[in-house]
Design brief:
Layout: H1 2-28, E1 38-46, E2 52-60, E3 63-69, E4 74-77, H2 83-90, H3 93-117, H4 119-123, E5 129-136, E6 141-150, E7 156-161, E8 164-165, E9 175-178, E10 184-192, E11 200-205, E12 213-216, H5 222-267
Antiparallel strand pairs: 1-2, 2-3, 3-4, 5-6, 6-10, 7-8, 7-11, 9-10, 11-12
Keywords: Cell membrane, Disulfide bond, Glycoprotein, Ion transport, Iron, Iron transport, Membrane, Signal, Transmembrane, Transmembrane helix, Transport
Subcellular location: Cell membrane
Family: Belongs to the MHC class I family.
């Protein structure tokens, strides 16, 4: 909780500094009344060898504007209009050294703390749930292979034809999206000739799987179910008709018997 408190306080300080920087850029562009946008990319990355790299960039009105260079303690202008702000900020040597200290010391230290806190979550591996669906339009038949609710994000998905890997150019590239619970979903699609769907299979590789998972499209049993229901209804109707016919015949036979007794009684 102490670390989160420190981060919250730090973010409040960043908010004030970014507001001042925003006004500085606007004044150097002679912008005062119009609506404008400042974008900031600030942070650091840790590589597998534990080396770190920091970045501090500003964008203005949707365009790259300025980037801080910690090695030289200056700013790189991405467009001519950024030069007045570049020169103004480079006069503040103390701020430049503070920027470098954050990128090379403070940011990596905070990142390391966050990694330690989330180690249990980041190290877990959730295997994907994979299924292949079938889609038919007036012009094309498509198979879609979907991998659902997996973690981490890295996953390999490919199509096989007659158990042989297909060229990636023959199907649409993989799409991956995050879920709200921290897992991911991905899918690939393939156009196939009608009637040849069973020749194609989807192969998925993921750290959460012990071995590659191969999934094939299986036709829905709904068609068989409908036929069964129709057949059952037809049989029921036939039985009902036979039952009604049997009852009618029984009644007619009973009526004839009663008439015969009546005639005999009159002859006596």
């Amino acid at each position: 909780s102490q670390m989160w408190l420190q981060l919250s306080q730090s973010l409040k300080g960043w908010d004030h500094m970014f507001t001042v920087d925003f006004w500085t850029i606007m004044e150097n562009h002679n912008h005062s009344k119009e609506s404008h946008t400042l974008q900031v990319i600030l942070g650091c990355e840790m590589q597998e060898d534990n080396s770190t790299e920091g970045y501090w960039k500003y964008g203005y009105d949707g365009q790259d504007h300025l980037e801080f260079c910690p090695d030289t303690l200056d700013w790189r202008a991405a467009e001519p209009r950024a030069w007045p702000t570049k020169l103004e900020w480079e006069r503040h040597k103390i701020r430049a050294r503070q920027n470098r200290a954050y990128l090379e010391r403070d940011c990596p230290a905070q990142l390391q703390q966050l990694l330690e806190l989330g180690r249990g979550v980041l190290d877990q591996q959730v295997p994907p749930l994979v299924k292949v669906t079938h889609h038919v339009t007036s012009s094309v038949t498509t198979l879609r292979c979907r991998a659902l609710n997996y973690y981490p994000q890295n996953i390999t998905m490919k199509w096989l034809k007659d158990k042989q890997p297909m060229d990636a150019k023959e199907f649409e590239p993989k799409d991956v999206l995050p879920n709200g619970d921290g897992t991911y979903q991905g899918w690939i699609t393939l156009a196939v000739p009608p009637g040849e769907e069973q020749r194609y299979t989807c192969q998925v590789e993921h750290p959460g799987l012990d071995q590659p998972l191969i999934v094939i499209w299986e036709p829905s049993p709904s068609g068989t179910l409908v036929i069964g229901v129709i057949s059952g209804i037809a049989v029921f109707v036939v039985i009902l008709f036979i039952g009604i016919l049997f009852i009618i015949l029984r009644k007619r036979q009973g009526s004839r018997g009663a008439m015969g007794h009546y005639v005999l009684a009159e002859r006596e």
